[in-house]
Amino acid sequence: MTRVHRSPFWAALLILAVLFAGPAAAKHRSGTLDTVGSDTMAGLMLRWGERLARQHPGMRVQLQASGSASAPPALTAGTTLLGPMSRPMTEAEHQAFVDRYGYPPREVVVARDALVVVVHRHNPLPSLSRPQLDAIFSETYRCGAAGGIVRWASLGLERPAGRIVLHGRNAVSGTHGLFRREALCGGRFRPSVSEHPGSAAVVAAVAEDPQAIGYAGLNHLTPSVRPVPLRDAEGVRRAPVPAAVRRGDYPLARDLRLYVNLPPGESLPAAERAFIELVLSAEGQAIVEELGFVSLPEAVLSRQRRQLGFEPR
Amino acid sequence: MKPSAPNLPMRQRLRQGRDRLATALITAGGIGVIAAVMGIAVFLVVEVMPLFWPAQSPGVGLETLWLPQDLAGLEAPAYRWQPTLGDDGGPLFSLTPLAWGTLEAAAWSLVIAVPLALGAAAHSALFMPRRLRARLRPTLELMEALPGVVIGFVAGLVLAPWLERHLGLALALLLLLPPGLLLAGGLWRQLPARLQQRLPLGWAALWLMPWLVMTWLLAHWLGPRLESLWFGGDLRSWLEITLGLDYANRNAVIVGMAMGFAVVPSIYALAEDALSGVPRSLAEGAQALGATRWQTLWRVMLPAASPGVLSAVMIGAGRAVGETMIVLMASGNTALMTANPLDGLRSLAASIAIELPEAAPGGTHYRLLLLAALLLFAFTFLVNTLAEVVRTRLRRRYRRLGGPS
């Protein structure tokens, strides 16, 4: 009984119903959980939803995965209480929510994701720094490079010969935006970056061409390409392995979040609570690993569980 | 009999009613189609209009859309299509590279499709036995039925990497194929007449098959040798260093091949119609005067059918410009302004397909994509109308020359 409706009257009635139903339905909750948001997280939401349905027969999670940008309007309009997003809310999105409700949305970090820079599996490139990455992919060099790098020889490699062939995601994807913000320091991509409709297509294109380099989501990595370790600001090489991403050492990482419409001092409705409890449990985090994302450290999980009132402080 | 005659037999009245119903339905359907086309055009125009009110979409105007712009970090003004630049600097909307890419892709596909399709049309209209021709048509129509996605997929994931690995072979084929085919034709003429008669003219293509296989094998042998002899073992580096040409894995030539494949059937069908529609009396007259088949084709048939052939090519161009999935999957979608056929491109249609689902309705980006759609619509509408006009005039000319069809 947790379908969320638009009008506050229905919402109030439903919250009441949930409160009354709460004790009785503690074991088997039912209802549909509507969520709107990120397509990167669609697989995760789906698997968590399946697991939830197995634990509580009769409960379903519905996801409208039309992109991170669709979550804030839906949360603000009240059509959903949960908005999965692969990027933090922008200032404007945050403000719109606060203007409507008077309190900020609650942010729950549910998993970590990383972008990997990949080259052909025979490419010996040892590592790249952020300015080098910027000099390869952008034409603005905002991260401090002196000029562009267009040939493999400029990186000190004898093989592969020739120009660097660039592959990336299409301009409207979140991956493209994240890479531009983090690796190009907000600069402008070269127009010669091939734009592919998905990370898997980028990986496939790089796998074919010894002169290619590209970026993709960590969960799309295959043995046909080699991920290039990145050097952080101190010059330490960081390979995109789950441990480094979990610690936050790997430079091109991002948090995957759930935004929750939760008034301060109140506790979550039962269905939402069950879902987030599952997500933050060892079981939920195992699903994260299965799908190729990176699970959160136990400290972060338990801190969030305490904050949400799932565990005594 | 008048339709309103009072005492017609029941059956006849019924049939009349049915006829009238069918006519009404067909008319309504026709009007509906026209209304839908007009409706689409009106919708596009209405949605695009606000772009040109300065208050609605700042920074967008004819200059920013079509002329090169000064950009930070670049020495010379340039064209850039980067619709989601976001925070700072603002998005860059230059339609020129997209329009260029569209035309480039269409041009290369025509370069590949027109000789093949017209050659096939001429051969089948003039030399092929009727039975074989009846078989060929459905085969080519099957080619047309192949979805663009499939062609694009094969081009992008199979053809592009293969060609990249076998550039030497491709070059050798390019060099060997034309002289090889000419040689095959010359040898055919030298064969004893007895042998020539055993293979009817319509089946002469069979003679070419072993030749093609041999050319292929020869190219396979020659390709790597050519590459190491002339190009230091790596054609791709040679192109880049000596000629300054980038080789992109998915390039205009790949798009041209894939889209050429898709366009061949439409050009073939129309051109073949035009050629076989030339009144027989013309060809027979020419041959009676002692013209060879080749002279008949070149001097009589082709000039007579030239408007039809032209309209076939125009229909092909219209299809190539509007084609989306092939370009999307085979081109790499890089919004570049280069004449290098070995570099990538990005077309208007592919940009619409990629970006429209993510563009905020009512935003500048959204309206610009609709402007791109309007451009495509106008272009294909114009080309198709022109082709139709030409064809109608051709039909009138045939009627004048005698001969019914």
UniProtKB/TrEMBL annotation, chain A:
Signal peptide: 1-26
InterPro entries found in the cross-reference section: PBP_domain, Phosphate_ABC_transporter
Pfam families cross-referenced by the UniProt entry: PBP_like_2 (PF12849)
Keywords attached to this entry: Signal
PBP domain mapped to chain residues: 24-283
Keyword Signal annotated: yes
Name this protein carries in UniProt: Phosphate ABC transporter substrate-binding protein
UniProtKB/TrEMBL annotation, chain B:
Pfam families: BPD_transp_1
InterPro entries recorded: MetI-like (IPR000515), MetI-like_sf (IPR035906)
ABC transmembrane type-1 domain sequence ranges: 99-387
Record's keyword annotation contains Nucleus: no
Gene Ontology cellular component list: plasma membrane
Topology of this chain in the membrane: Multi-pass membrane protein
UniProtKB keywords: Membrane, Transmembrane, Transmembrane helix, Transport
GO biological process terms, semicolon-separated: transmembrane transport
Top-rank taxon: Bacteria
Location in the cell: Cell membrane
TM ranges: 21-46, 105-128, 140-163, 169-188, 200-222, 252-271, 300-321, 368-390
Family the UniProt entry places it in: Belongs to the binding-protein-dependent transport system permease family.
Name of this protein: ABC transporter permease subunit
Organism: Halomonas nitroreducens
Source organism phylogeny: Bacteria, Pseudomonadati, Pseudomonadota, Gammaproteobacteria, Oceanospirillales
